[in-house]
Amino acid sequence: MAGTAATLGRARSAGHYQGNPATREARWVRYTLLTLGLGFFALFLLMPLIAVFTEALRKGWEAYAASLMESDTISAVKLTLLAAVISVPLNLVFGVSAAWAITKHDFRGKQLLITLIDLPFSVSPVVAGLIYVLIFGAQGWFGPWLQAHDIRIIFAVPGIVLATVFVTFPFVARELIPLMQAQGRDEEEAATVLGASGWRTFWHVTLPNIKWGLLYGVILCNARAFGEFGAVSVVSGHVRGQTNTLPLQVEILYNEYQFAAAFAVASLLALLAVATLVLKQFVEWRASRAVVID
């Protein structure tokens, strides 16, 4: 540390360290890049967000509130929350387990497991929904057996939950794997040598080190669960008041030319997106502070 401080001091005295930026492009280049970045932000992110709330409130607050209190919308909110409440904890358990196995143990098929975790990123959500229809639909592989036992998966809540689990599958694991790989195994191995059990090691050693990354993955997983459209649309059947989530409710209202109501419901998803960004920024800030303190 003393040598580094001395080096920086010599650099300052020699005029080599004056708080200049890391790059030395001309000022017009920096301003051009900044303008392009802000322009894309305004055009593709800020303006659509403003448009959603403008259209939602076009007929006033009373019409806005009435649209949100409509029975089908309330049912869509409840179903969306239910799908998220079930799928996020399931993916939390899987993500932590998969990250632990991949980063703390060596076994055959590790690379295959990593590849399978990334599968939902490469498969279209619509294709994922069709796969569930093929497996659990009336004409699917298990369709006759399910009908014989009066079990409904497709065009019912279980199918929506399955589709949501699939599309949110990688988020927690993909956030934890690089973090746990960077941390290595030294602390867990030391705890094991001292006699700690696997669960005790995880709870007192691993979890404190990954808590902010874990929370970050859960936030992204939850946002994805709320906003999923393609896979859920295929397996839901669009039964009003029963199998419509918030994104599907927006589509139905818009197709029925109820534009104010459609944008009112869409504003709920927009608010969720804004809340997700705020939580994401908070988690990143706390994680960076934790690194500095350590």
UniProtKB/TrEMBL annotation:
<dbReference type="GO" id="GO:0005886">
    <property type="term" value="C:plasma membrane"/>
</dbReference>
<dbReference type="InterPro" id="IPR000515">
    <property type="entry name" value="MetI-like"/>
</dbReference>
<dbReference type="Pfam" id="PF00528">
    <property type="entry name" value="BPD_transp_1"/>
</dbReference>
<feature type="domain" description="ABC transmembrane type-1">
    <location>
        <begin position="77"/>
        <end position="280"/>
    </location>
</feature>
<dbReference type="GO" id="GO:0015419">
    <property type="term" value="F:ABC-type sulfate transporter activity"/>
</dbReference>
<comment type="function">
    <text>Part of the ABC transporter complex CysAWTP (TC 3.A.1.6.1) involved in sulfate/thiosulfate import. Probably responsible for the translocation of the substrate across the membrane.</text>
</comment>
<keyword id="KW-0764">Sulfate transport</keyword>
<protein>
    <recommendedName>
        <fullName>Sulfate transport system permease protein CysW</fullName>
    </recommendedName>
</protein>
<keyword id="KW-1133">Transmembrane helix</keyword>
<keyword id="KW-0472">Membrane</keyword>
<comment type="subunit">
    <text>The complex is composed of two ATP-binding proteins (CysA), two transmembrane proteins (CysT and CysW) and a solute-binding protein (CysP).</text>
</comment>
<dbReference type="InterPro" id="IPR035906">
    <property type="entry name" value="MetI-like_sf"/>
</dbReference>
<dbReference type="InterPro" id="IPR005667">
    <property type="entry name" value="Sulph_transpt2"/>
</dbReference>
<keyword id="KW-0813">Transport</keyword>
<keyword id="KW-0812">Transmembrane</keyword>
<keyword id="KW-1003">Cell membrane</keyword>
<keyword id="KW-0997">Cell inner membrane</keyword>
<dbReference type="InterPro" id="IPR011866">
    <property type="entry name" value="CysW_permease"/>
</dbReference>
